[in-house]
Structure prediction request, 218 residues.
Amino acid sequence: MDRATRHRIARLYDNRLQRLYVRSKLASDPVYAATAAIVGGSDLPLLDIGCGIGLLGQYLNAQGHSLPYLGLDHDERKIKAGRRAVQHAGLGAVMALHHADVAELPSVQGHVALLDVLHYLSAAQQLTLLQAAARHLAPQGCLIIRNVLREPNWRFHATGLEEFFLRTSGWIPGGVQHYPTASELRTPLENAELDVRFESLRGRTPFNSYLIVARPHR
Ligand SMILES: C[S@@+](CC[C@H](N)C(=O)[O-])C[C@H]1O[C@@H](n2cnc3c(N)ncnc32)[C@H](O)[C@@H]1O
Prediction:
């Protein structure tokens, strides 16, 4: 995504700190481009669970992908900021943001995204959510997860430091509950009859992040 587009998206957000966050996130994090490469060209709806301020929807639209986007997050401040941005961008017909917990998913079926969300839930909640996410996939849909995985390396420990700052700054109230291992994700997804693929996706960060893509057997 070019600089002008990053700045145009950032200007949709009212708060100066959020604009700064949006510019740097879009410049440095490969997760939105990775998601666009998977869902691009599809017109299935995308359910973005733990959508934050709805950046994934803004990114997809700016890159010319017009699939219906439904974001959901339990942080009302972020949903309000995201809704204002949708309004400023005139995207009310394709983007909707709901204030809700991950335990209250709407009945849509299509693609599902879970980007940097799972570790804010307990291990038991993660399992329930993965099973629910699998049920929200259309036959041609994809489940796209990006998460730090629990592994015995320094990258995993660097993540803990970042989360400390996120929690103390108030950006993510509550903080981390449980970093999953690869097998804690793979097993329930395979049990739901999905093909699962893992790849490292760190971008320009030191963190132990992976992209996990799961699709119904075809
Ligand atoms: C690190 S942010 C990621 C935001 C977005 N997915 C992205 O990548 O741009 C994690 C988000 O998960 C949301 N979240 C955490 N626990 C949640 C829950 N139980 N229900 C709904 N949203 C939740 C937080 O409010 C936060 O917006």
Observations:
- The helical segments are 3-10, 16-28, 31-39, 55-62, 76-89, 123-135, 154-169, 182-191.
- The pocket of S-adenosylmethionine is lined by residues 50-52, 55-56, 73-75, 78, 101-102, 115-117, 120, 172 (CB under 6 Å).
